Amino acid sequence: MATPKFSRPKINFNQVVKLRVSEYFKAQNIARSGNSQLFIKAAIIVVSFVLLYIHLVFFTPHWILGLFECLILGALTAFIGFNVMHDGAHGSFSDRPWVNTLAGMSINFLGANVFMWKTKHNVVHHSFTNVDGVDDDLNARPFLRLSPSQKKFKIHQFQHYYFIFTYSLLYLYWVFFTDYKKYVTGKVGIVPIQKMKLSDHISFWGFKALHLVLFVAIPVYMVGWVPWLVGFLVYGLFAGLVLTLVFQLAHSLEETAFPVPEPVSNCLEDEWMIHQIRTTANFATGYKTLTWFLGGLNFQIEHHLFPKVSHIHYPALSKIIKQTCKDYNIQYLEHRQLRRAFISHFRHLRGLGNA
User: Fold this and answer.
1) How many domains does the chain have?
2) Which among 2, 315, 272, 239 is positioned nearest to 130, based on CA atoms?
3) CA angle, residues 101, 103, 109, in degrees to nearest 5
4) Which one of 118, 225, 315, 343 has the fewest CB atoms closer than 10 angstroms to its CB?
5) Low-confidence residues in the chain, pLDDT < 50
6) Residue 3 lies in a domain
7) What is the 3-state secondary structure (H, E, C) of 252-298?
8) Pick from 348, 228, 335: which is nearest to 283 by CA?
9) Full domain range(s) for residue 243
């Protein structure tokens, strides 16, 4: 399968929304990157992670407190991904490239690899959102059926019961399997990754080794094999659950589209911006605390239309984009409450499993 093509714009929606957003930044006289508020938030999250890691490994608490701290450490791992790595990998954390590189590499210390992530997320997912066979985020086979065009197995009739467990496996599966698969095959699904330089190879293997030292060797030495295994599983499974749910609640819903290219021309029905709006939904955008922790990824529409803009600007951009969608009679998908988005996702899985 070749990567599909997008239709040419039939309306000037994309020019208008880009112009309005550009005018907003000019009127406010602010940069599109992060500011001091983002840097302070990033420092709080990263320092909290480091201190909690030190307490768990070197000042081993009672096992009840230890398990609770492992849950918090898993959440902080996801929050570093949402708030630091994600903006850094998109080049929006700072207006200084070296700061973005450093922020993006935070994922390397947590066991994954930013080079592989950029291809999977920045290139593939952001280009071909919800296109089965291309968007690797839809590939949870054979355990889950996330798109109507995917083959249905008998097990899928129960997927709305066990999807939480499957989602929790993401982080561990990512760190210990999929990164290596991409490295060996040189592809993310059908899309080739950029040719790796020597420094990229060294970074890949060096940080994978460092992660094993920090999260396996040292903890096993300090607390023992069994306590480490229990704690690491609690930590990794909770991190995977938080990471996966946030992205699934933005794309795998009853309301979102799963476009299929026209067989002969291999062309998608919509232009790129319209495609992003039809395949993406916001959720719980009125909850500032949730937005703070999720790095603005509950404003997923704004992120997909303007991925190089820092998430601290998404609340303001949402007003512009929502109004522009209204002007052009384009549906702007949004669940005002987190539970509503979760219910929609649950029904989506149940529907695909029983279809």
Assistant:
1) 1
2) 272
3) 100
4) 225
5) none
6) no
7) CCCCCCCCCCECCCCECCCCHHHHHHHCCCEECCCCHHHHHHHCCCC
8) 335
9) 13-354
pTM above 0.85, yes or no: yes
The residue count of the chain comes to 355
Q: How far is CA 271 from the centre of its chain?
A: 23
Distance CA 26, CA 20 (A): 10
Beta carbons of 114 and 104 less than 8 angstroms apart: yes
**Residue 351 in contact with residue 148, Cβ under 8 Å?**
no
Q: Does residue 6 belong to any structural domain of this protein? A: no
Q: Quickly tell me which residue has 């997320």 as its tokens.
A: 121
Is residue 251 situated within a structural domain? yes
3-state secondary structure the chain: CCCCECCCCCCCHHHHHHHHHHHHHHHHCCCCCCCHHHHHHHHHHHHHHHHHHHHHHHCCCCHHHHHHHHHHHHHHHHHHHHHHHHHHHHCCCCCCHHHHHHHHCHHHHCCCCHHHHHHHHHHHHHHCCCCCCCCHHHCCCCCCCCCCCCCCCHHHHHHHHHHHHHHHCHHHHHHHHHHHHHHHHCEECCEECCCCCHHHHHHHHHHHHHHHHHHHHHHHHHHCHHHHHHHHHHHHHHHHHHHHHHHHHHHCCCCCCCCCCECCCCECCCCHHHHHHHCCCEECCCCHHHHHHHCCCCCHHHHHHCCCCCHHHHHHHHHHHHHHHHHCCCCCCEECCHHHHHHHHHHHHHHHHHC
Sign of CA dihedral 59, 61, 65, 66: positive
Token pair recorded at residue 126: 């952001």
Contact at 8 Å (CB) between 254 and 273?
Answer: no
Query: Rounded distance, CA 130 to CA 126, Å?
Result: 9
pLDDT value, residue 51: 98
pLDDT of residue 1: 63
Q: Give the model confidence (pLDDT) of 33-61 as tens digits.
A: 999 999 999 999 999 999 999 999 999 99
Residue 113 lies in a domain: yes
The whole-number pLDDT of residue 189 equals 86
